[in-house]
Design brief:
188 residues; mainly alpha
């Protein structure tokens, strides 16, 4: 008779996933993997977000250079129509990069040229995080959290899917979380 009273309590205690998050006691123990169509959609959406950040970064560089050449005070907010809330950080970083003084020696001039309109157009650097390898940050909490989740998933034999943990980290730090997750999951 006592066992009948303890059974609901035992069920409730076991209703957490390996990360301590509550889960349905009557549902599947592991979430089903994404379908191929869903995975393809997720990859396309991720790529589209990276492209939008790259475009905003390039627009920021262009607007920053234009403001610096016109001797306007440094303020990316004056170009509020050039970015969305999702691309604001990329735009601001590009604007800051473009607003820097663009002094470079002219070919054969031997000195610095203070007129930016006479200089060849410099190459636009890629938006940080859009390509290439950058060393892992040592004191980034989102990277460390992603690393922890990636390591747990690899050891538990789960599939490599940082998107399965959406909602467990700050969405503003998604790239850092995913980089930590992938680094841990792929480490051997």
């Amino acid at each position: 008779m006592r066992l009948l009273f303890l059974l609901p309590a035992a069920l409730l205690v076991s209703c957490v996933d390996p990360y301590g998050n509550p889960m349905n006691p009557f549902g599947p123990q592991q979430p089903p993997p994404y379908t191929d169509q869903r995975e393809q959609w997720r990859n396309q959406t991720r790529d589209q977000g990276q492209q939008q950040n790259q475009y905003a970064y390039e627009r920021g560089i262009s607007d920053g250079r234009a403001d610096a050449n016109a001797n306007l005070p440094k303020s990316y907010a004056r170009h509020y129509q050039s970015y969305s809330p999702a691309t604001q950080t990329a735009y601001q970083q590009g604007y800051d990069q473009g607003y820097l003084p663009q002094l470079a020696p002219l070919p054969g001039a031997g000195g610095l040229n203070p007129q930016p309109w006479q200089q060849p157009a410099p190459q636009v650097p890629p938006y940080p995080g859009s390509g290439g390898y950058s060393p892992p940050p040592t004191n980034d909490p989102a990277y460390q959290q992603g690393y922890d989740y990636g390591l747990r998933d690899r050891v538990a034999g789960r599939q490599n899917d940082p998107g399965a943990h959406t909602g467990r980290y700050d969405p503003r730090n998604r790239r850092s979380f995913e980089r930590g997750y992938v680094d841990a999951y792929n480490s051997r």
